[in-house]
Amino acid sequence: MNWLKQHKISLFLLVFLAVFFCIYSYFNLVVIAPQNDLLLAGETNVIKFSSPDETANYFWIKQIAQGEPLYYFEELNGVATNLIHLRSVNTVAGKITPGSFIGMIVLYGFIAKLFGLWIIPFLTPLFSILGLLFFYLLIKKIFKHSAIALISTSLLAFFPAWIYYSARGMYHNILFISLVIIGVHLLLQVLTQNNYLKLKKINFNFQFILYFLSGLIIGLAVITRSSEVVWLALTVLLIFIFNFKKIIWSGFIFFLAGLWIPALILFYYNQISYGAFISAGYRSIIPNGDIIQAATSGLLFKIFITPFGFNFKVMLINAFNYLYTLLPYWSVPAIIGGFLFIILPTHFIKIDYKKRILYFLYLLFITIYLLIFYGSWQFSDRIDSQFLSLGTSYLRYWLPIYIIALPFVATLIWQLSGIFIPNISRKKLYQNIIVFILVVLLFMPSINLVFRQTDESLFLLKNLSEYRIKSNLINQVVGPNDVIIIYKQADKIFFPERTKIITALVVPADYQAVKNLIKINNVYFYTYASPEAVASISRQQFEPYGLQITQGQKIFSHDWLYQVEKIQNEKL
User: Minimal CA–CA distance to 87: which of 51, 48, 47?
Assistant: First the structure.
């Protein structure tokens, strides 16, 4: 019995994290292996995702796992002038390459190469659970307050953005945040406890391993989402500054060595895939590698501070929409809790005042930076782009803000739980019951939103059978080498089993390329537009270039497939 009392928090975390690992894994499995066929057969052609980013990431992970390079060639792109590619991939020097960060692709790909493709749906849930565990350890270490750490961790486990993207494991945001949390905790651990895990029976100092691991894991986080390098680098720098006298400089060399290994991996794949050591997704961000010229021309400022421009009004609207309006039952407690976090006296909240102010200033810095970095752009994640969406890019891009603010919510819950309980013998028990009730009050609307409330909720999103049906029907009509022009949201229906797709025709040269393609392959036009609208599209956009859209047939529901042909009586 004494053992249970001593380890009750550890046992709670073990059971709690195991439950959420099963929840996260379930939703990854029903997407990747709807009938357990991936687990039994290794691979099928029925795997469909609800976004092109997930589809592309899975495709490239599988490439690495099967020993293939991070590119492939599309032989028709010579005629098509590089028009043939998915939204989330790009063409570089005739190669089809990843259009996003490669850290998750490489890491998951090598793990799947060791264990098999069956492990892929479990990887993000695994890293998510590790992130939760180290989040508890990190918050406990910073504030020396087990209750705040445990409540914060419980809240994070079902925070809508965290559970949503843990369940949609082919996005790299959860992996990135988990790696950051783990790396930062290890770094703080080795800096604040110089004798931590010093083993006397072996001939090396374990601190050097911790330095190395923290650098390696933070480096992996950087290549997982390279766009976050500025605030992450400043975070690490601040940790070293505030613990300057505790740095073991030989250990710091190990930290740099660990940091350098992911950088080398990134440079290697960038050079092979994109032809430049330093690149962002599909393009070299520093032409000819001239960093000095890029800095003096303002290019580096644009890349790392305002990649989407700067519009103060749009930034404020987006901040209000996605930091308040979308999740008011989280944002209001965070604001109230943040106020209490700052003003309550130390003897009352039992957290050092200096730490509280520094933590608040750090959150303020992260918020301002991420608002400037992402806030001035309108991301079109849906066809109805004005809808405040659960799957919006902002929800995952601003995930660090939500997470850092969770101790504020935890503070409010903890203070409320104790304010009405008199000093009685079983006060702690009653306080824990009130904490549980308050957490459940946040849990219920969050789970409803994530699981059922919108068309992007997981129980509705998991039913991707319509994509599989459409794909099967189209494959019965369209040959394997035929080309299909699609509306951009339809690429997830076709890819990866069908790669010859065109997602956009923009300039006259694009239509001329289609005209050349028709000479050697069948070309189709896939749309949800009505026949009348398609006739107008054909007349206005295709006929001026000697092309026409004909022979429409209904595929499924509102989706139609047409043939694109050359106008026979066109004057030469």
Answer: 51
pLDDT of the chain, 572 residues: tens digit per residue:
677 777 788 889 999 999 999 999 998 887 665 554 443 333 444 577 878 888 889 999 999 999 998 888 888 888 888 888 887 788 877 788 888 889 999 999 999 999 999 899 999 999 999 999 999 999 999 999 999 999 999 999 999 999 999 999 999 999 999 999 999 999 999 998 754 444 444 445 788 899 999 999 999 999 999 989 999 999 999 999 999 988 888 889 999 999 999 999 999 988 888 777 776 554 444 455 455 555 555 677 777 888 788 888 889 998 998 899 889 999 999 999 999 999 998 888 889 999 999 999 999 999 999 999 998 877 655 555 555 677 788 889 999 999 999 999 999 999 988 887 766 667 778 888 899 999 999 999 999 888 887 767 787 665 566 777 787 788 888 888 889 988 877 877 787 778 888 888 888 888 898 888 888 888 999 988 888 888 899 889 998 988 888 878 888 778 888 988 888 765 54
H or E stretch including 72? Answer: strand 72-73
Backbone φ and ψ of 114, nearest 5°: -75, -40
- Provide the residue ranges of all domains of the chain, joining segments of one domain with +: 2-149+159-292, 312-457, 465-566
> Could you tell me the pTM of the whole model?
0.89
Helices (H) and strands (E) in the chain, counts: 27, 10
Length of the chain: 572
Cβ neighbours for 327, distance < 8 A, ≥ 6 positions apart: 160, 449
CA 316 centroid distance within chain: 23
Contact 136, 149 (CB under 8 A): yes
First to last CA, the chain: 92
